[in-house]
Amino acid sequence: MSITIYVPCDSSAISLGADRVAIAIAKEAEKRNITIQLIRNSSRGMFWLEPLVEVATAEGRVAYGPVQVGDVTSLFDADFVQGGAHPLFLGLTEELDYLKKQQRLTFARCGITDPVNLDDYIAHEGYRGLSNALKMSQADIVKAVTDSGLRGRGGAAFPTGIKWNTVLGTPSEQKYIICNADEGDSGTFSDRMTMEGDPFVLIEGMTIAGIAVGANQGYIYLRVEYPHAHKALNTAIEKAYQAGYLGDNIQGSGKTFNLEVRLGAGAYICGEETSLMESLEGKRGLVRFKPPLPAISGLFGKPTVVNNVISLASVPIILDKGGDYYRDFGMGRSRGTLPLQLAGNIKHAGLVELAFGMTLRELLYDFGGGTASGRPIKAVQVGGPLGAYLPESQFDTPLDYEAFAANWTVLGHGGVVVFDDTANMAEMARYNMEFCAIESCGKCTPCRIGSTRGYEVLDDIIAGRELSKNVPLLRDLCNTLLNGSLCALGGMTPYPVLSALNNFPEDFGIDEKAGAA
Amino acid sequence: MSINKQQDFGTPASAATQLVTLEIDGFKVTAPVGTSIMRAAASIGIDIPKLCATDSIEPFGSCRLCVVQIEGGRGMPASCTTPVAEGLKVVTQNKSLADVRRGVMELYISDHPLDCLTCSANGDCELQDMAGAVGLREVRYNPIETHLDAVKDESNPYFSFDPSKCIVCSRCVRACEETQGTFALTIDGRGFDSKVSPSQNEAFMDSECVSCGACVQACPTATLMEKSVIDHGQPEHAIITTCAYCGVGCSFRAEMKGEQVIRMVPNKDGQANHGHSCVKGRFAFGYATHKDRMTKPMIRASIKDAWQEVSWEVAINHAASELKRIQAKYGKDAIGGITSSRCTNEEVYIMQKLIRAGFGNNNVDTCARVCHSPTGYGLKQTFGESSGTQDFDSVMKADVIMVIGANPTDGHPVFGSQMKKRLRQGAKLIVIDPREIDLVRNSPHVQANHHLKLRPGTNVALINAIGHVIITEKLMDEAFVKERCDIASFAKWETFIAQEHNSPEATESVTGVPATELRAAARLYATGNNGAIYYGLGVTEHSQGSTMVIGIANIAMATGNLGRDGVGVNPLRGQNNVQGSCDMGSFPHEFPGYRHVSDPATHKLFEAAWQAELSDEPGLRIPNMFDAAMDKNFMGLYCEGEDIAQSDPDIQHVHAALRSMECVIVQDIFLNETAKFAHVFLPGSSFLEKSGTFTNAERRISPVRKVMTPLAGYQDWEVTQLLSNAMGYPMNYSHPSEIMDEIASLTPTFAGVSYDKIDELGSIQWPCYDEDSVGTPIMHEDSFMRDNGKGLFMLTEYVPTIERSSRKFPLLLTTGRILSQYNVGAQTRRTENNAWHAEDRLEIHPHDAEDRGVKMDDWVGIKSRAGETVLRATITERVQPGVVYTTFHFPESGANVITTDNSDWATNCPEYKVTAVQISKVNQPSEWQEKYRAFSETQLDLLEQGTSNS
Q: B138 in a domain, yes or no?
């Protein structure tokens, strides 16, 4: 049996030395006259083990990690190419607890296949969803997505099927599918991992969306900070065109879907769907008011589906295995799985795809293993920079959109950033206001002026100036932002700010009673 | 009288017809689908606080003051961006809403100077009003980051930009885009750093700004403010009147302080301009009180004598006795008058009445002779009426717009903006012009689909080729032609136009327009649904001007592009009252309403009404007057509001004619060029000092209202009346409305027009046949105005002008206007508009410049067979090789020294647009310019001597 070695090409692995490890392995094999097939798979999502080198054995793929260049000689010495024992040996990859306990639906192939190898994709159940979709009516495709219970994974959790149905029902000669790949939330990386690790699943999902609603053009709006994803997507798109999975007459169906990647210019606000469309049209990234909904008047005024990467990447498996299959995962109105991204001060940072329903505490400790610093977890910000900080008392909240909403917290895009007890939450609140100030598009008054006033007031509070005036002022400002802002940037910045103030009043120099003021 | 601000509904009206009913604060309101909740509320008197919304531009949703709550809905949607829907229950006031509004206001004021009492917008500031409305009582922030130190931009002569007062509502940016279509303003930076930026952070004067003032009008604060308001404070009353510049005829509110105009604000209800204006109408009114204004009547025996200020009585009696003396000496026909397209309808009417009834001849002509007389002729012949067929708003329904020999963004800027709006919505554009006007590709988001860059003087060959394509490719509207047109005439035209010599391939060598391009343009016009033609003096001011107008009419009829919204043949009139002065009988052969002086019924009607014996012989046209003067047959002239000594072609001939007359009476607000040849000067009144009406390019009769006392004591119509009485023909009008009543009683197309009705409707488009009629926006809807109701096709054989390039004069000069200056410049040169255009320039193609060693800004001599002048050169590819171009706004430029005496075969309209010239590099003014300067200086000395004596 030939020797197959996997070294990830995911950018987190690369940043930890995966490219240099891959070169070292190739050189060492050549030196030792060992013929190997070196596959640049993507990451399994266990970043503390990256670079995670895998070797195919008769029993399955075994893992070594984290591997540094200096380990390569000893790995060869230990005959790792045959699965030999070594201090970095981790056993069968699939049996690792972190992976084994996940429900990988959207990330089923991630880390397993060569991301830009179409045959590999097809060999791993790829394009079965599209194949089914091509035999279905548009309404039935939309129904399958509706039945699956899939909700927008970008953060807003709007039912994907309903959005598609609106676009399907809006007559227009031209419609568009936009993939929002401007993944700007701090501590999130599931979109990036999908695009780098399994770009075909996104392409397939968008193609299905296009066929479902009658759109023949798709755009992936990709943040410029993702060069590896850009390359992977373009390579995969080219291959999909060559193989007749994109373009005219897809797989002989007579259907057309064209797809291209457009790069953003670095603005967080362009992850907001209406600014994204403005940017895609070549204008300043300024938030549009709604209505009209993009589904009715979106890109260039045409009916447009705007979905997040994960939403679209979840579509192929729904069309492959049926809406019910996907729906069977999850709890309440949160169906299917959510790829959670553990980051910040956490021991086992990485991607955890789970059916909705597990508690935050299980995620933090059973998967995350507690803080990296070893100190107690003080707070967890879930849902990106616009998500609330959860104190320990809320860790038993199940990962479920409604359960989070009931706590005035959000699941958002599934980013989980952990802070230990050295964090000062007033400083964090100031950071959140500053983030809003830096990223504000400047259109609406609350966000444009309020975010700057917000960090100025917090500076006063942190300095202990006029707390009796400034704390109520901060609350009033948050009320104005919350109710008055045009989009979620201004509208949700009060989530982290107020949750910090309410849960950690002592960090604001006030006792708990005053904190309720 | 009060300032009576116009109500701002916050968002534009919806054009939908379907109505929905909703409840706002418990009150039922019905509104068209697409109306904003804000507008629906305003319609029943519920004012929702707002700052970024104003009803001249689309909603934006940024200030967040206008939030409301909707029963069963989430959050607080903005009422400006949320449309009405059946059964909605909206709450506009409660504590939660008040808290958010106050919170927003507190943020605004945390970055705003607290200098309300000394602020120029005090009393007219929406920010101030809103702070009051939401009950802001304190600002609790201790702001560190602010814009309070932002530096003022005072570069624009008319308005100042103070960014420290800016609330970044983007109303200025949006007005620049949506209303004006210039896109000169943008928001630079992001978030708190957002700021209004002219072009790329330039000063207003260095930016692409055209100073239309839409931004100033849209600004809710003192950020963009008229300098006149800064200097004088808020106006206290407003009077609606009509602009006296171009033929768009914008309606304005003259905002006054006593008798002083503080600012001109375009009237939102103005049916021609819908609240928009250009730099001239809005800002360039200072000439009315310029120190050069003449306010005393003057006489002198010869033009070598000093002027002598006299009383009105002396001046009028002297003028009358001179005219009578000349008639006694040289005959009844030896005197006449020239009226102007700048005068009101009523002034023109009594002027021609004075001449026909008082002078006893028909020697009356108007400056339309030198601009749109071919329009009058061509459209009367083919359609039966001497006027454009549409209203301006019709352009919003056009699918293909063909602009021929016109430059709307400079010459008719407010209509140009409306046209650009339609083009941005997707209408197609064909430009036929020797020069690349801004619409071709220099207007943001507008680009011509075809620019047929023809050689000057070859219009008719080109329009014939378009007709040829329509006929031979069978693109005509047969049903329209069959039903609506004179079939015999069509058959003749069809045979003529299909001849090979009219094909694009055959005309290509004449016009220089590639046949394929022309065919594509013709197909687009004929088959692109509603095709609308707009044309200007590039059509009329040719030896075949009338032929070209007819050619245009032919293709419009052949394609059925007449008689409905979105189509038509539309002459863009150069001056404010070209249409009206023609309507009023200012041509020597026509009574008011375009009825020939020899028509027995009409002749009888006027003789009876005017109680005078009238000649049935057409009188002298302007050029004939000059020729007759040289022959000593025409020795006395009464010229009102027109500067023939600058604006007429072959000016040296004009000057010679004026010198040979014995009595030249000039009635004007300035000592214009013609007045330098005059013996009697009667000081006129500007449009601000008199009442009357102007009729714009779309036949819209709009009111001109006196807002200040005439500086010289009389309105112009009163002066003409005085002269008439002194001549022995009595006139006793006490108000111009009486003149209009007489016009209505004698002219069927004006029969239903009265001042009362104009006051009621705002304006009236003639024809207006009876009391119940509200006018006619679109003409020829069911039948043409010709006697048999059928449109007439006429043959349009191309005859090349004799003015063509030669070895001696190898280049063709053509002329045009620029935005900031107006015609001979008498008004605009006496305003700050010179900041944009302080001299006329010669545009020359780089190839032609290089051949002659001419560099940018060099002085060049321009020599034609008529004369020579000197201008500075601008080297540009806007003109094609072989063609040069200039404007004619400054008398010392002497553009008309070089134009020739060629003219239209039918109407004598001068061939201004084609003069063969040679260009050479020079280093001194031309001989004519030297002489002109000396003469001009002498005349000003003679004025000085006369006025300082008194």
A: no
Check whether A513 has a pLDDT greater than 60.
no
Q: Mutate which of A453, A469, A482 to test chain B, going by most B C-beta atoms within 10 A?
A: A453
So what's the ipTM on this one?
Answer: 0.95
Looking at domain A3-100, does it have CATH number 3.40.190.10? no
Q: Do both B738 and B718 map to the same domain?
A: yes
CA distance between the termini of chain B: 39
- Report the distance separating Cα B170 and Cα B195, nearest Å: 9
If you measure CA to CA, which chain A residue comes closest to B186? A284
The top-level CATH class assigned to A118-327 is: alpha beta
pLDDT tens-digit map of B443-491? 999 999 999 999 999 999 999 999 999 999 999 999 999 999 999 999 9
CA-to-CA separations, A177 to A148, A239, A376, B869, in angstroms, rounded: 20, 20, 44, 64
Q: How far apart are CA A504 and CA A515, in angstroms?
A: 8
Q: What is the pLDDT of residue B786?
A: 94
Q: Give burial (CB, 10 Å; 0-12/13-18/19+) of B193.
A: middle
CATH code of the domain covering residue B616: 3.40.50.740
**For the domain that residue B434 is a member of, what is the CATH number?**
3.40.228.10
Residue B281 has pLDDT above 50, yes or no: yes
CATH code for the part of the protein at A333-418: 3.10.20.600
To the nearest whole number, what is the mean pLDDT of chain B?
Answer: 95
Encode pLDDT of A462-512 as tens digits: 999 999 999 999 999 999 999 999 999 999 999 999 999 999 999 999 876
Query: What is the model's pTM?
Result: 0.94
Task: Dump pLDDT digits (tens) for B237-280.
Answer: 999 999 999 999 999 999 999 999 999 999 999 999 999 999 99
State both tokens at B649. Answer: 């072609």
Side chain identity, residue A52: L
Q: For residues B842 and B874, is the Cβ–Cβ distance under 8 A?
A: yes
The phi and psi torsions of A247 (rounded to 5 degrees) equal 100, -155
Residues in chain A whose beta carbon is closer than 8 A to a beta carbon of chain B?
267, 269, 284, 289-291, 437-453, 456-457, 460, 469, 473, 476-477, 479-480, 483-486
8 Å CB contact between B110 and A451: no
Of the candidates A32, A47, A36, A38, the one whose C-alpha atom is nearest the C-alpha of residue A19 is A38
The nearest CA of chain A is from the CA of B49 a distance in Å of 13
- Characterize the bridge pairing of strands A258-263 and A217-222: parallel
Three-class SS state of A272: coil
- What confidence tens digit (pLDDT) does each residue in A383-437 have? 999 999 999 999 999 999 999 999 999 999 999 999 999 999 999 999 999 999 9
Mark A404-437 as b/e (b = at least 16 C-beta within 10 Å): beeeebbbbbbbbbbbbeebbbbebbbbbbbbbb
Backbone angles phi, psi at B589, to 5 degrees: -105, 0
- Structural domain boundaries enclosing B245: 159-288
Record the tokens describing residue A458, joined without a space.
């917090």
The predicted pLDDT at position A514 comes to 47
Same domain, B456 and B502: yes
Percent of chain B residues topping a pLDDT of 70: 99
- Spell out which residues of chain B touch residue A451, defining contact as CB-CB under 8 Å: 191-192
Q: Do A451 and B75 touch (CB under 8 A)?
A: no
The tokens for B50 are 């707002």
Task: Kindly give, in sequence order, each residue whose CB lies less than 8 Å from that of residue B947, ignoring residues fewer than 6 positions away.
Answer: B296, B298, B307, B309
Between the alpha carbon of residue B19 and those of residues A420, B84, B87, B900, the distances in Å are: 60, 10, 12, 61
Share of chain A above pLDDT 90, in %: 97
C-beta atoms of B78 and A289 within 8 A:
yes
Q: Name the one residue in this structure whose structure tokens are 């023809």.
A: B454
10 Å CB burial of residue A459 (0-12, 13-18, 19+) is middle
The verdict on a CB contact (< 8 Å) between A440 and B99 is: no
Asked if the model's pLDDT at residue A449 lies above 50, the reply is yes
